[in-house]
Amino acid sequence: FTIKGIRINQDVEGETTDAALPVSLFIYTEDATIKNLSLEDIQISYSYNILLNSNIAGGMLVYDATNTVIENCHVNGDINVEATGKSSGAFIGGIGGFVRNSTIDNCSTDGSINITFDYQGDINENESFSTAGGITTEAIGETTIKNTTSNIAITNNVKGTSNINLVVRTGGITTWADNIQLLNSNNTGALSATGETANHVQVGGLISCLLNGYLANVWNASTITSIGGVEGQNIGGIVAYMENCNTTFCAFDSELSGIEEATELKPGNGFDTDFMQSQDFVDLLNSE
Fold it and tell me: In the list 79, 93, 201, 222, which could disulfide-bond 195, CB 3.0-4.6 Å?
């Protein structure tokens, strides 16, 4: 099944307070299966002039998925978010927003995500985020993503007057992951994050921040750009930062990413572009 030509255009000049603003076709799914569905030519545009304690969030397919199987689903479209506000942020994914205890299998994304957020400070002491991932913005709780590819170009640009409790993350597959498996998957979409006034800026070729996970037969071939980060800058060809994880063959394009070597907390093998486009690289993947 295919759904074509969804258009969402919200331009709000007044104040928006304590709101959850989803960009998704489905809002909540639980104990559900979504399969054999394509979304084509999707155009979503959100513009909020005064956003207070509110979030723009979701993927083009689903906002919040629990115990859900997403299988053979393919998304092509563009999401554009522009906002100015306090204690607010964006959580944007290509397919899903917040995904937990779920499986994403044989899915793909193509298109773009563009976030321009003017962060004007904190109302409370909670962290604020601007996050964008090619498949999801968050994946937690025994979630498996496998046989999946992203070709979404992501620009995540945060500016403003305050760096209090602000985190900017961009990931080719997802931004925040805890207790997940990522298998036989890849990203080719260009990735960038800018947060000159942010506490942290993280860009990972596949995942920005990974805790308690397992990666196997995954690769990234994209440009990676990270600017800013008051308390430091994290960047990685596969993962920008990880803890308590195991990996089996993670590869990234060292020429496109500008990253030559991996470290203990930033896994992967760097190869040049010619090799990653060769049959030898395909044979290497198939041998693992």
Answer: 201
